[in-house]
Amino acid sequence: MRLRGATVLAAVTVVVVSGCSTRAPDGGGGGGGEGGGDVATDVGVEGTTIRLGVLTDLTGVFAALGQDITNGNTLYWQDNQVCDTYDVELDVQDTGYVPQTGVQLYSAMEPNILAMQQTIGSPINTALAGDYESDQIVNFPSAWARTLTEIPGTGVLGATYDVEIANGYQYLFDQGLLQDGATVGHIYFEGEYGENGLAGSEAVAEARGLEVVPAQIKSTDQDMSAQVTQFASAGVDAIVLTVAPTQTASVAAVAQAQGLDVPILGSNPVFAPGLLQGASAQWLRDHLYVASPVTAWDAQPELLEQYEAAYPNVTPSLGAIFGYAMGDVMNQVLDAACESGDLTREGVVAAFGELEDVDTGGLLVPINGFETGVSPSTQSLILRPADVPGGAEVVQEAFEGELAAQLAG
């Protein structure tokens, strides 16, 4: 693979990325024309260029993650093409993690894109569900809420949050860090993300006799003092989080100050490498466990070298690995559509529906396929904070917990 230089992402930008094809389609695509040979095209294909949409977060609560995921998307398409023929152009827009902004930005880009390479955040994916279905848009969300599996053409890349949290609990039980009948405090965002994570806690509680102390917050709430103090008074044996890194940092600081020496289990969005630069860095290293669909950088040394060359002034996070893997899965869909001779939106949706046993070369946990209402995977990795690239290392390879298959649907 060859790098073609870094691309600087702005709040509103178009990123043109291309590979190294020697074959080109005959004639121009778009407008219902023929993309090449017998490949039919309609929206979002012009000549030898496919345009994909990206609705990310560059200024909101997941700004750091959104930047890294989008960098990963960009890096992937710099070195890969669809059917060794079509270059990919990314239309990148910043929603700020505001659903209405996402709806407006999508409305503007929709007439010119074939599919959505990335839509970050369960609330924004949910707000766009009707549009994605009516417009026949294949979309890969940077989110893992169960509700997203109900959107036709939307592919959640990993276990849904309830399955993911249950797998995390399984690891704590297996390691003797949590016992049946324990009391657990769970802080969660209002909305699909947090509520689906809480559903995982509730399922484990029923199976293992846990008592769950729930604490719902808004994504804009940053001080977790009241919640952690409540947990300390309840005598919790663990804290579970379906929040953002900002809240994780606050939980760690308050728990450390109060001497609350219990494990913290989080869904994959709770961690960012910047957390290891704060005053509670060592406390997090000792207490935080993250259930994740994404591997760590130490398992992908060649990709790490490539990423650092493209983005030398960026601290690599696992979000970049996820973004790169998203590109790989999208390419599998588009390649299949192209090989079937149909790169129209309808053809891409059809190819998406036939995708199963998705292999990303270890970047992600195994993806079984995309069935309505079913978690696409039953497996998770367990990561711990560490002084390594990306700030986390794998302590448990992809595995399926005892409740995973039952929760998956």
Automatic annotation (TrEMBL):
Keywords: Signal
Pfam families linked to this entry: Peripla_BP_6
Residues annotated as domain Leucine-binding protein: 49-360
InterPro entries recorded: Leu-bd (IPR028081), Peripla_BP_I (IPR028082)
Repeat in keyword set: no
Keyword Protein transport included in the entry's annotation: no
Database matches in PROSITE patterns: PROKAR_LIPOPROTEIN (PS51257)
Superkingdom classification of source: Bacteria
Family designation: Belongs to the leucine-binding protein family.
Protein name: ABC transporter substrate-binding protein
